[in-house]
Amino acid sequence: MFYVGFCRVCGTGPLGLRSCGACSAVVILCDECDAMWTDADLNAEPSSSGEGDSLCPLCDGSLIATPSRWATEKDLESVDWLQHALQQRSLQLRRGAPFAIDIRPSKDDDEA
Amino acid sequence: MSRSDQQVARLLQELVRLARSGRLSLRWLWLLGVAVVAYLLLQPVLERSLGIDLPGLADVSVVTSETDSRASHSTELPNEGDIENILSSQSRATYQSPAGLRYTRGSQHGHRLKHLLAHATDQPDRPGQHGVFDSDDAVEVVGLVDEAFRQALAGIATRVELEAEQTVYTVNCGRRIGYLGGESGKRRGHPAASYLRLVIEENRLITAFPCVL
């Protein structure tokens, strides 16, 4: 997962770059509390997740269900606001492990 | 302690709690105490002399508990069956905790309850801080979140931050509840955490995890 810092809402979540499966836009999504930003202005008020899946603030598609995914390096090349923020050094791009999904490994996994 | 004694003790605890929270003045507490003692003394005499079955204090206690549940102040334990059903299946049912927190579907874990329980194990490669609960028992963790939520609502040892639709409570639990994991926690030697951070939207839990201030 590429991320650009940590969330000021929850204080700890990495701000991952998420590619929307419906409209292909790349948004910033907190990997902890699901706060969302549509561009590099992290001082702006974030969008929140609502009752179910986090929805893309641009098209209302699910940012959680496939084909949405963490953005790849190739995805990021065409994101103008991100490239501009990186050039201006207002954001720093880093790579790290996303929040693991499988919280309860089966007993077989434990024994293995 | 007999069941009836336990009910009396619970009722008295409720009254003391109400007095502490300021919802019941000492004068009313004193009057209620006198009324309870008088009822305890008179109940068997009246039942014998009138030949009727008067309600016991246990019944009064149940009413108190239901009222508090509506007011999100019950000390009832989380329902293990409901929690396990969501954790062990693909159920997307909403779970409501005794303190009134709603756990709905959402997050990359599919359900907020699963997301919460993902904080019961360390994720050493996760960037930054990853709060880890000492307990990995779902009922205990949900109970701890309820306890902190009640404390936050009472405004006790809690920092409150408002951000758009979300309210973030950082509650001093006054004891160790977990430790700091993730990449940052690993670097810092996994320091003990006695604070619980809750991110809430209305009465819906978004996330909660142990943290260090």
Question: How would you describe this protein?
Answer:
The longest helix of chain A is centred in the C-terminal third of the chain and has 9 residues, at 80-88. In chain A, 17% of the residues lie in helices and 20% in strands. In chain A, strands 1, 2, 3, 4, 5 and 6 form a six-stranded antiparallel beta sheet that branches. Chain A has one domain. Chain A contains three helices and six strands; from the N terminus they run E-E-E-E-E-H-H-E-H. With 112 residues, chain A is an alpha+beta fold. Residues 105-112 of chain A have low confidence and may be disordered. Chain B is α+β, with helices and mostly antiparallel strands and 213 residues long. Chain B folds into two domains: 3-70, no CATH class; 80-211, no CATH class. Chain B has seven helices and nine strands, in the order ααααββαβαβββαβββ. Chain B has helices at residues 3-20, 26-50, 57-70, 80-87, 112-117, 138-153, 182-187, and strands spanning 95-96, 102-103, 130-133, 158-163, 166-172, 178-181, 192-193, 195-201, 204-211. In chain B, helix 1 (3-20) crosses helix 3 (57-70). The radius of gyration of chain B is 21 Å and the shape is elongated. Residues 1-7 and 58-74 of chain B have low confidence and may be disordered. Classes of the chains: A alpha+beta (112), B alpha+beta (213).
